[in-house]
Amino acid sequence: MGEFELIRRYFLRGASSPGAGGGSGADAADGGTGAGAVVLGIGDDCALLQPPEPGQLLAVSSDMLIEGRHFFAGTEPAAIGHKALAVNLSDLAAMGAQPLGFTLAIALPAIDENWLRGFCGGMFSLAARYRCPLVGGDTTRGPLAISITVMGQVPAAQALRRDRAQPGDEVWVSGPLGGASLAVEWRRQGITGSGPHESAARRLDWPEPRLELGQQLRGIARAAIDLSDGLAGDLRHVLAASSGALELCAELTAEDIPVDPCLAHLPATQALSQALSGGDDYELLFTALPQDHQAIRALCPTARMIGRIRVGSGILLTGRDGKTAPVEATGFDHFSG
Questions:
Q1: Mean pLDDT of the chain
Q2: Residues 260 and 190 reside in one and the same domain
Q3: Is 336 among the domain residues?
Q4: Is residue 182 within 8 Å of residue 218, measured between CB atoms?
Q5: 89 close to 126: Cβ distance less than 8 angstroms
């Protein structure tokens, strides 16, 4: 099988490919999702998309996943396909954006049809759920690497940004933290099993982008970011972006930080550390006015208010013993060390 047959068979939705529905015309162009932004999809030098609707901004994000760096060799192909798109959609969620489409550039060591069926199944299943069609990209031979660029639109006056936190804001996270990074540690040690192991593995391999919540938070959240590199590290990004004439600090309360249930077997201090510094959670971290507290709880029952923003520096954590100390943990950095 050559490159162009590979594209036709696996990535051109609407063609007679494994797992693809039939169809032509608009269905073939938009991946069968019915997304109206795509005028011309895969098959030409460029995709053609309708510009954002009046009053909307275009939101664009790219993420690359490399075997051995972002996922373990031997990870289920469907999970790789799902996660490759999910981490990009999570960036749109953090901006409150609605997906329009995505491109895929993928390097493959060889054409493995079983692997491709699984990968495309995971990726296109998520794409269909959020009406986000594949509109183009590239394929080549090389060590397994996947790069996706996703496009969305968001009302210009309501885009969520990380540089809008203000003193007095409450700090929220949308769900439990620490499970995915625990799964990474277990896999490095060769530990598998059911129960907490299976739950942690699902958090790592099948993250759920918080797209609906991001859109619901328009006009409510002041600042927002998705949690890819760990709570402490990503919160520092918000503080740095929002600090201007006034330097900002986040005061957190340990007992309010939602620790993933799969960490229940760990000592409390170790579980808290995992929740603060572990990555790959893909929950939303956001700030909001105290007056919106009840509205947020109604929108997202899993959300927890974990602290407040004030004038100051860094991140402070009040422990279960009532003592307050600076948080030293930093986020994941590909080039550290």
A1: 87
A2: yes
A3: no
A4: no
A5: yes
